[in-house]
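Recap from last week: sequence in, structure out.
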Amino acid sequence: MSTKQMSNQFDFDGAYGAWKDGQALNEAKKDASKGLYIAVDFDGTCVFEEWPEVGEDNPYAVEVLKECVKNGHKIILLTIREHETKGIEGRDLLKEAEDWFKKNEIPLYAVNENPEWEEKVGKSRKVYADVIIDDKCCNMHTIEDENSKGELCEYCSWRYIDKWMVKRGVYKSRVTEDTDDYLAEDKEVRYEDL
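Predicted structure tokens:
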């Protein structure tokens, strides 16, 4: 499989203007004992896009998510998957995603909701999170590659997410390697751009 960089769009400063050089994202960040709410998508983010199947693990997703949990942050699975999916009989697609987190020993704080936030403001269709990681987000750096079916797909670059987490003070040290084959091909992407 060859990987190809899709964009230089990894500019979370634009998407999350409240982050400033590792300072607090918001009031929740100021209370370090509570940690951040980190909402993460599943298909195309944690795993390669092979809907409705669970794709192969996205490189470094497990390591970065475990580091977030280790540093006291709460992972919220934010996915379109449901227990019952129209047109797909006899399968619980949401449970399959939840099982992926269990298999990888990544505890979930919640699924498609933020119970603590809802206690404060009430039930909402929009899940409150301090950080949202999703392959469909504007400004998300994505990689293009083939999935196990040979289909071309885009997925999140967890090496860039890892760099961003460290730069913004979500945790202290990198969990991924600093080299990427596709970075060597594109000299415009620099750590300072994150």
